[in-house]
């Protein structure tokens, strides 16, 4: 755990930015991230850094001080860990205090709360409502709600109906909803299929999230979305009139990624609709400061919807 925290901290401190989240809206690929901020000391360092978005994992478990394990609560921890020195309540309180006291809008932190079970999410709703200002500060609620590419049967998705029922109590928080995936350095074949995209659209509409109008960002795995450009456009087009849709490209270390195809997806979707949350070496290879697809991507994402 300590090694993971140290690696993340090095990346955070190396990726400083002088712009705020609001200023990055025209080019979301510039937004910087800290991952697995599940430790009190790590949170302190991230708050002191220029990182703009704090991603943290929420599970049901116990604070380390609760030696008899008498009080199961939402804690900041990634399974299989069930202990932490940081509760969700304290995490939110510290980030909220930092944001309220920030005298420079470029220092404000957004939060991405990654829920590892529906039980953890349902137990967290009242804590979030009471302990954070979602209307004023960027708040993402993340969960994998559907099974996804490459026969991923090992990870059980969060129940989508229960997720959306609970999420509606959080008002207009951004919903970061995706598919479970199986991928790695030895994978070269896989995509977000027609059926998986249809299932996502159907579950959003059947739960009236299109009518609720929440902003939605779809976390898509870099190596897979690079092979799924057409279906991602179709996903955007199905929801663009009811929800503010973006994509969040993510990748695990050493994932197999076709860099050129991934660049094509990013520039096709648009820099204003694509967050890029990938390891530093992959981010550098993407050369996002240079639009190599300028001639082929003059047709806007909105205009492509007439093809469907």
Q: Specify the structural class.
A: alpha/beta
How many domains? The number is 1
Uncertain parts: 1-18
How large, in whole angstroms, is the Cα Rg?
19 Å
Q: What is the succession of H and E elements?
A: HEHEEEHEHEHEHHEHHEHEHH
Spatial shape? globular
Strand content: 15-25%
Helix fraction by DSSP (H/I, runs of at least 4): 25-40%
Please give the number of β-strands. 10
Termini separation comes to 46 Å
Mean pLDDT: 89
Number of helices: 12
Largest sheet, in brief, is: 10 strands, mixed
Query: What is the third-level CATH name, the topology?
Result: TIM Barrel
CATH class: Alpha Beta
Provide the CATH architecture. Answer: Alpha-Beta Barrel
Family: Belongs to the menorin family.
Domain Menorin-like: 27-282
Protein name: AGAP007860-PA-like protein
Keywords: Signal
């Amino acid at each position: 755990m300590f090694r993971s925290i140290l690696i993340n901290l090095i990346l955070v401190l190396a990726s400083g930015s002088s712009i705020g989240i609001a200023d990055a809206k025209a080019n979301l690929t510039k937004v910087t991230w800290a991952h697995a901020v599940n430790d009190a000391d790590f949170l302190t360092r991230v708050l002191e850094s220029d990182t703009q978005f704090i991603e943290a994992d929420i599970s049901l478990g116990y604070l380390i001080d609760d030696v008899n394990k008498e009080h199961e609560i939402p804690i900041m921890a990634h399974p299989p860990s069930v202990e932490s020195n940081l509760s969700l309540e304290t995490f939110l309180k510290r980030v909220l205090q930092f944001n309220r006291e920030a005298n420079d809008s470029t220092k404000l932190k957004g939060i991405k709360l990654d829920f590892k079970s529906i039980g953890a999410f349902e137990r967290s709703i009242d804590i979030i409502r009471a302990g954070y200002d979602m209307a004023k500060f960027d708040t993402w609620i993340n969960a994998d709600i559907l099974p996804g590419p490459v026969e991923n049967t090992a990870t059980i998705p969060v129940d989508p109906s229960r997720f959306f029922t609970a999420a509606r109590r959080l008002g207009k928080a951004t919903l970061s909803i995706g598919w479970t995936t199986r991928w790695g350095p030895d994978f070269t074949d896989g995509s977000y299929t027609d059926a998986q995209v249809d299932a996502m659209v159907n579950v959003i509409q059947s739960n009236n999230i299109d009518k609720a109008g929440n902003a939605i960002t779809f976390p898509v795995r870099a190596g897979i979305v690079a092979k799924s450009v057409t279906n991602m456009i179709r996903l955007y087009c199905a929801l663009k009139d009811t929800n503010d849709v973006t994509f969040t490209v993510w990748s695990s270390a050493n994932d197999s990624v076709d860099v050129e195809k991934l660049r094509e997806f990013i520039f096709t979707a648009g820099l204003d609709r694509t967050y890029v949350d990938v390891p530093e070496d992959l981010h550098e290879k993407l050369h996002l400061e240079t639009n190599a697809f300028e001639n082929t991507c003059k047709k806007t994402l909105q205009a492509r919807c007439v093809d469907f």
